[in-house]
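Methods — Computational structure assignment.
A single polypeptide chain was analysed. Its primary sequence is given first, followed by the predicted tertiary structure written as structure tokens.
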Amino acid sequence: MSIRLTRAVAGILLALTLSVSGPAAAVGEAPPNSLTLAVIGDYGCQPGSTCPGNPANELAVADLVHSWRPQAIITVGDNSYENGSAANVAADQGPYVPDITAGNFYPTPGNHDWQNGSIEPSTGFFRSPPHYVAHLGNGLVDLFVTDMNYQDPDGDGANSRQAAQYQANVEASRATWKITTGHQAFYSSGQHGSQTYTHWAILPAIDLFLSGHDHDFEHLQIGGKPFVVNGVGGRNLITVCRFGCIPGSIWHDDKHFGAVRLTVTPQTLTVDFVTVQGLVVHSFKVTKGAGVETSGTPAAPQSTPAISVDPSRPIRAAFYYPWFPEGWTQQGGHPFTRYHPAAGLYDSSNPSVIKNQISAMQYGGIDAGIASWWGRGSRTDRRMSALFDATDETTFRWALMYEPESHANPTATQIESNLRYIESQYASQVSYLRVDGRFVVFVYGGANDGCNMAKRWAGARQIGAYVMLKIFSGYQRCANQPDGWYQYSPDAGGVSVPGNSFTISPGFAKASESAPRLSRDLARWQEDIRRMIASKARFQLISTFNEWGEGTAVESAQEWSSTSGYGLYLDALHRAGSPTKPSALSAVRRAPTTTPNYLLVVLGLLAGLGVLLLVVLLRPRAGRKP
């Protein structure tokens, strides 16, 4: 019996220890009057790792947060650069080892932490799983840490196990304040922008949302909730609002390394943005039942569109067709498609349809849609405004596909007239895709086009257009060269135009043809995605998002549905072509281990002893028969 008792007590003690986290609290202690929490992000950059940045930046941020004597340090991801290998993790966490050892360090995983193919070096070092709940201040704060990386075995989508667990944990929380972290920004005006696939974590009960990923400071207020972007922990700084700040952005800074300080009381939550010089450059306070009060440096008014995209970063864009419902009926057939779109036979004018499509494209890492445009007054022209309106609160961009070139040879004068129309009607909007400060136009050429087409488009640069022409035989030898070249040939799979673009297609199966020209093959698609990314082409193009008549769509359909709701082809784009791998961590559900609440431990021990005593008393005695 003593062995059984020892094992039972040990099991109860272990279970209770793993269920409680956060700074130690005395037995029966009430929530403290105040907690100081430090928040750092995108920081890991020390000698011995593969981070190419300046180690002094991380050290300066570490000195800053330690000067506050915080009860806990929270990260918002990319804790180690350039990937989460064991060597990188050990080197980059050097300034924070005492905090980690003390159990007062709460990491959020970022994409770089997963980039070596496994999160296990990080979870082992930090002694915490990828997503969890941390209880801070004996009921004052519950911290909900999410893992918004596709490699997480519990998923990162709205229908994932992680999302279900998160929602249940939030509902069960009785903490005064609830804070959610995720590396990829819920909302952001920075380099990567708002990641709408993370929005399943935006629940009414949450008081504050913290993220990183974009290497800047930003405070946003959207839907009555405060959002913080804090990616200035040491790696490097990247321009914010290059597309123009999104609606809801209140303040931003991309000139200083620093950290965010949270001061939490039972009545208020104060958020300070602090530079490594110790200067509080922006602050806001959330008061229970009274909303948000802001002070500090206001954001500059954003009255003009942002400049353009980062020229060092590839642009992933998908060809998009706003020609439904008429497109469902063609060549005497209805519906004119071999497949069954998950959204049904939709109307391209429907704002909710467009918003859902934008969310799907962003889930697939698609930065922009290239919308088919058939000229002034056409049905596609009349639908353009709805496309741009649907990009509110996102950093998604639209460009136009100039289709009139495919069936005629417009003169240079006609081209100039149409480009000026596009510029005045659409390119003046923040959500129009720009490169080098110019609005992007893709031109779909006809089968017989040659260098004469390039000559007719030569004047587009003077109008302010950035022109991408469809290739033809001998295009390299034309005297008049556009800004770039691309190929639209979805029956050919992956097609590279060296130095310009790389285009991929899931398949080609036209409704009016007896057999596919290119059969769908998910393994080929994943390989093409990897080839596209490896090409580092300026434009990485998807043929297509929703050309259902030719059967080239990656938009979700019954034939390739998935648990994410976005379909297998967008899932593959979301994972950058990598298949999902199971992990032993999928079974981990514990919070980071720190000092247990000893009152609960004692009660658990007494309960366990009582159960064992009852078993002994009720056990049948030897020599008696029932």
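Note: The chain has two domains: 21-303, 315-561.
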